[in-house]
Amino acid sequence: MPLSLVNDCVGRELALVEERFNRELSSDLPCVNTLVRHVARFRGKMLRPTLLLLAGKAAGQLTDEHITLATVVEMVHMATLVHDDVLDEAELRRNGATINHLRGNEAAVLLGDYLISHSYHLCSSLSSQFAARAIGRTTNAVCEGELLQIDNRNNLDLDEPTYIQIISRKTASLCATCCMLGARYAGAPERHIRQLETFGLCVGIAFQIQDDILDLVGDVATVGKTLGIDLDKGKMTLPLIHFLRTAPREHRELLRSLLRGDEPDRLERVRNLVLPGNYIQYARNRAAGYVARARAALDGLPDSEPRSMLDAMAEFVLSRPL
């Protein structure tokens, strides 16, 4: 989806979010500001603030509270990225060095905490505590998803329902909350709030499935971050789960052997084993199913440019280049 279309719809508001993000995180300590400036490079297309703002516009009118909330969710998201890179020992994100690779795990963990702390400080400025409680529930869900994934590390028998539960919590829950808050603070009726929350959840699940595919078979130059991390960390993703359930027995045994090993060419060998079959396509089809559910959740919302943008964003999830 052309970025210009999003900018035409919510570009002014996104600029205000970026301005508030930088202002709220400003410190009198140069070392803190240096780290904040570096992590700001990870913002990319600001998907979550965009979801919140488009959901608000699709359901009603935007207010200054939406700018605050969009800034809050971007801070939370940035914190999860910084902490994820520590957990994954990643060295590259958006074609730049991660904080942990640049400054070490201690600085990265504290910077993630700094972002979370500021997000709650900013959220507390709203007249209602509804958003703060919703963000709190969501960050709890994100942590639960990560803990569930860690608990299933190297579990080669992980089933698909548990995998979906993991990504629903650690990724999709924040997307769902963005859409829900956008609609609620725009004064939308309850049915539209729930529809948009479902939209965000389904888009988030599809996004993570596609991200997991990219980690397995993507190109570093195109994706812009360290690949093969899921494999190195014993995280079972949908293509591998489907392979171990449906591939010929000798192929399943070979994959299990590769997943238990630590050969330097392991990622390439796993790719060569998985790519010839329909295992990647199966995962893409499952992502497409969630995108279809997301688009269906928009039914009944008034026809508008923001609704069309949300629909296009859902489709865009499936077109991310491998």
Structural features:
16 helices; 1% strand; mainly alpha; Farnesyl Diphosphate Synthase; 2 strands; globular
Tell me about this structure.
The chain has 322 residues and is mainly α. 74% of the residues lie in helices and 1% in strands. It is built from 16 helices and two strands. β1 and β2 (96-97) form a beta hairpin. The longest helix is centred in the middle third of the chain and has 28 residues, at 190-217.
Query: Could you spell the SSE succession in H and E letters?
Result: HHHHEEHHHHHHHHHHHH
User: What is the CATH superfamily?
Assistant: Farnesyl Diphosphate Synthase
Q: What spatial order of strands do you see in the largest sheet?
A: 1-2
CATH C-level label: Mainly Alpha
Q: Class by helix and strand content?
A: mainly alpha
Number of strands: 2
| pLDDT < 50 runs, ≥5 residues | none
Shape assignment? globular
Overall mean pLDDT: 91
The CATH topology is what? Answer: Farnesyl Diphosphate Synthase
Reconstruct the topology from this structure.
Layout: H1 3-24, H2 30-39, H3 47-59, H4 64-88, E1 92-93, E2 96-97, H5 99-103, H6 105-123, H7 130-151, H8 160-184, H9 190-217, H10 220-223, H11 229-232, H12 238-246, H13 249-260, H14 266-274, H15 279-296, H16 305-317
Antiparallel strand pairs: 1-2
Briefly say what this structure is.
The protein is mostly helical and 322 residues long. Helices cover 74% and strands 1% of the residues. The chain has one domain (3-317): Farnesyl Diphosphate Synthase, CATH 1.10.600.
